[in-house]
Amino acid sequence: MCFPGAHCSLAMVQLDKLRYFLAENCTNRFFVQARQDQPDCPRGSQRQGAEVERPKLAFSILPNSRMAPMTQTTLPITPGQKLQLKNSPAEIVEFTGKVIPVGKNTFVEVMFPNGVKRKMLFDMLLPLDENSQDPLEQIARGCFGRIDDLKRLLTFEKLKGTLHEIIYSMEAAQVDFYPYQFKPVLKFIRSPTQRLILADEVGLGKTIESGLIWIEMQARRQARRLLVICPPTLMDKWENELKDKFLVDALQVDFAGFKKKVDAFMINGPGEEFALISSYAALRPPKDTLDSLRHQNRDDTALPPKARLLKKLKYWEEQDNFPFDLVIFDEAHYMRNSGTASHMLGEALSGAAQGVLCVSATPVNNKSEDLHSLLTLIDAGFFSSQASFSNLVRDNKPAVQAATCLARDPIDYERLNGCLAGMENSDYVRDSPLFEKLKQNVAKMQTQGKPSYEMLSRTTDLAEKLNILGTYINRTRRRQVEENRPLRRPHICTIQLTETERRFYDAIDQHIRDLCQRSTSEFSTLALISRQLMAASSLPAYAQSLLGKQDENIPLFEAFGIEDSDERQEKSINLLVEDFSSYAIPSPKKLAACDSKFARLREIIQNFNGERIIIFAYYHATLLYLLTRLKGIGLKAGMISGRSSMDERIAEIQRFTSGEIQIILSSEVGSEGIDLQCSHIVVNYDMPWNPMRVEQRIGRIDRVGQKSPVLHIINFNIDNTIEQRVYDRLYQKLGQFGDTLGDMEEILGREIRQLTIDLFSSRLTPEEENERIEQTARALFNRMEQMNKLEEQSSELIGLSDYIQRKIEEDHGLGRYIRPEEMEDYVQDFFGRHFLGTLIQRDVPVPGCLHLRLSAEARDDLNRFMARDQSLMARSLRPDPLTITFDRAVMKNLPLHQKRRIAFVNHLSPLIRWITSYYKDHGHNLCRTSALMTTIPSLEEGIYVFSVQLWEIKGLIPYQKLSYGIKNIETGESLSQHEAENVYTTLLASGKDWIYRNEIPEDFLRENLKDLDEKMEQDFYEEVEFMQAENETMYNIRSERIRNIFLPRIEQHKEILKKLEEEGKHKTIPARKGQLRKTEENMKRQMAELDKRAVFEPQCGNIAMGLFYNNPSS
Q1: Whole-number pLDDT of residue 209
Q2: Tell me: domain 180-295+303-381, CATH 3.40.50.10810, correct?
Q3: pLDDT of residue 331
Q4: Which pTM does this prediction carry?
Q5: 358 burial via Cβ count (<10 Å: 0-12, 13-18, 19+)
Q6: 76 vs 801, which has greater pLDDT?
């Protein structure tokens, strides 16, 4: 029998049984009920004759007190006073002064912000206490909010800070989610130097990874200035990738445009914003200025403007105010030779950048000197010499092996302890506080048996951080991330020429061989040979070119990897055309009528029954010819080439992916930067001699995200030609290496160029030609095998542990990013609270979109916030009314005409930043307490208290983290941090409101919550020790970098002063002493600033508390 004041085991009673139990056994009425929109379980549903369980009570259940109804004179509130709803404290209402006594109840009239008036029980209202933000105080007042209040509060905390566990770039761009693409993001952000070589294999999306790093820097570091350096052929690709996928409006610049932006930064300071794309050729200094650039104290008054600016950037001294927040060097292997102008450009820009990202697929496959050269570029002080680099490679192996040991289950402690012993011998980690923590953790794990998730995760993280080379290099191989990679099925189409075709082809072949033997330069030889390759591509198109009916610029860069020169080409082409005038050039129409190659292409297209096909050819004339012929037989075809603008290319691709056209004709340059996974059929209408070029074509469809299990690769060649012999001997021998050819692009290009010249410039018999081709094939085969051995050894060099990738997959599963639904709720709630005149329509024009018509006040406030913001994101928010979506999947699937009218909004959008800024400036009344109900099968039935704490540590590594705690108030057991976060994720996703009416004594709740807080604080103190070790390590690294920058400069000044005194040049001594004094002062100032920022200040506090009832069987 249960009476008021008795004890009952509330935690173990199902909610429907609990209500029945209380109604039958208690003399007073209790308020334990489900949310009003959930139907009650009828008493008759209990099994007949079943005895209701009556467990012993663990605490008192308080009855609902009954008192006489109050009148206006006895109410403790006054008309006009602000009140809040107990069970929805975020809702603020105003007492109108009207009181309605009804029996033993007292109703009052309140007015909501939208002007609606309602009658409510006075017991369900509380006077508004705007100063009470402490969750425990809110619990004492009986305030318990709803699930939506908790969601909004946590969204605000995510957006206003930079939480350690949140990946801000995840789902924030128009890219599909692949966990491996966030490995370099985490490595870069958590790097003590913010320098990284991004060395993923070809086709894994290094451009996307670079863009994700920029988003993360914008969110975490408030980064404003981006510079991308790449080859000229990739500038369009970068511009469009940044714009379409990352909403970054980047500007292509030459040196004049670059200098203008840098000068603006020097005038305006860190508030200056830009995103620039330029090329190595446009910015690298003249070769005759390199020596002057290597010496800071050389007189630079005579230097040309480009070298003078680069020298200023190279020796940039304001280490807390860089011109560039991030510099990305694409195809960074262009800079690996330390004696070149390109390398000097890299040195100069790296010296003036907060972060540096070198993107290259090849660095770990080349000799160690090349890798060292790139590492010197990103951190010259640390990688000071090849000898020290070799020592680091040797000393780094135990750290790599330690991370591998920790990834195994069970852990091989014998081998792990051997790794720790090896790390003791390393000058690089022996004295690190992180190494001391690693040893302590391993010792604890050995005594625990199977380590906890938290302990294993933290220990593995320590081992990863002590992998010094691993923090500078990210390498992901395709075999690591593609378990079900499509099967490539090649088809060889050998063409038998007609008599007319053969006569014309042989005449061209012989004529070009004659001209090549008289050629005096490699360039003119290759320009002539490219004409022969054009004939092999399409005889009708070539005939049109010779007759002047088709303008054709020979793409030497595509064919042989060398830069085009129109003037040099023109001389070779004129020579060819003039000398060919004595030959009878067949009519293009006649050649088209007997075109054996096109006839075979038509058969292939018919055999694929309307499936989408990509046809590649080098030459623009060939593409135009094929487009005309295909349309002439009624096929729907489009074309993209290097002559197409990016907008034209995108429009054609949109037609192709939508099914409007079946066939897309493309050159390599035309398809660069465009993914074509919508098709699984590639036709190589002509075959470049360099297999890498063919691999790049196939790479347009063989990319992450390809859905087809089989890729069809159709390769055309002409029987009894030199092209066929190259294909048979070279392609067949190297084909087994597949996409790893991408790692040998430069070597392949060089060897193929030399082979091409030898074959055409020498009078060789077919047998001798075969032997020469075999010779090249053998050399390349041996080089490929050597490269693969180096690749296998790279796991010892930098480690290929999948710990980080597993961590990313877990982060995504736990929602450790800003989710679209969070932002949508955040925006709607904001306007509902603060700008009531704003009209919002959901799912207009399509599901997942919001149609907003802002009130005049809201529009004015937002426009003021964006007044100086000319970014792409800001421009997209200026239309009124405004249509937006937060979901990249929705945006991806919109037709092109709707994409232009709908703005994609992520957490970096001015709209979200405005709302967060508004809350920061005006405060917020988001409820910090909640009472909820859930049905989690893996969690024991019962009532639980929960707490969310914000852990914040100020120091060189700003650290903020949301920590979750959950405790069963019946059993007294608490969940681990990891378990609590998992439960919390489910609770937020599927939890319901519990209309809680203070049934559990407030002092009992407070006692349990305080116990939970104490346990969480112990976890916090452990985290503090870990972060303190990181802070000390960071201080050592940064102080060493400052000394490496300034001490050599100080020594140079002193040496020059000594020389000036010896030579008696007393007039120049004061100026030099001034320079010395300024450099010494700069060093002292930066060390003082570092000391100030290194002060370690940890703190933690509650941001949310509450309770929930879990009934796994309901």
Answers
A1: 95
A2: yes
A3: 87
A4: 0.74
A5: buried
A6: 76
